[in-house]
Amino acid sequence: MRILLVEDEENIREVITLNLELENYEVIPAATGREAIRLFHEQHFDLLILDVMLPEMDGFQVCEQIRLTNMDVPVIFLTAKDTAADRIAGLKRGADDYLTKPFVLEELLLRVQNLIRRSSKAPANTPELFEFGGNRINFITYEAEGVLGKFLLTKKEAMLLKLLTDRRGEVVSRQQILQSVWGYDVFPSTRTIDNFILKFRRHFEQDSRNPVYFHSIRGVGYKFAG
Asked: pTM value?
């Protein structure tokens, strides 16, 4: 099991990492919110431990960005704030659990164990193998099959497809796509997204000029209607 640990205080980060590794978890540490989002989009994680007070962007903002593309990965917030309002705010932002500092390490380990066990029993919103209209996408291997036959997706193409299919029927804005797929630090031109959508239409639509699945909403964003 792989855990993304986001904590800006080095001593706390090292202690938590050591104790998780003693429980046979693989831990990937991050010190800032931007680094956490980048790592999350590049790798697979089974759980996030997220400090609320982070430099550049706080843990609430990080969680909101992650929830744009993944509603399933469990998130534990760590914070020194212990009011009911703070706890409610964290849960509203997408957290599954909330632990206040200082905390007993054994309690954190038990919460991690419980959340991973619970999430392993729950079905994902979008299965690893996604099918629509005779098309197939494997979000693990990046293999796809459409009207032109089998082909391999790039990581960014798979991320964009996952975002759109997870939110089928909803309009996803260009800003949400740029932040979720490319992150905060590197924004490509919005024309890049257009090119991705055109490719999806060529591979997955019977008539790319009259799309059934991949729709552009002028001035707003894109929608998957499968």
From this structure: 0.56
Q: What is the pLDDT of residues 50-80, one digit of tens each?
A: 999 998 899 999 998 888 777 778 999 998 8
196 SS3 class: helix
Claim to verify: residue 179 and residue 137 sit in the same structural domain: yes
CB of 101 within 8 A of CB of 88? no
User: Cis (ω within 30 of 0) for the bond into 102?
Assistant: yes
Q: Which residue is listed with tokens 């909330």?
A: 98
What are the pLDDT digits (tens) for 178-202? 878 876 445 556 678 899 999 999 9
H or E element that contains 28: strand 26-30
Residues 37, 104 share a domain: yes
Q: At a CB cut-off of 8 Å and minimum separation 6, what does 138 contact? A: 128, 129, 130, 144
Q: 33 with 74, same domain?
A: yes
Q: Furthest-apart CA pair in the chain: how many Å?
A: 59
Write out the residue range of the structural domain in which residue 25 sits: 2-121
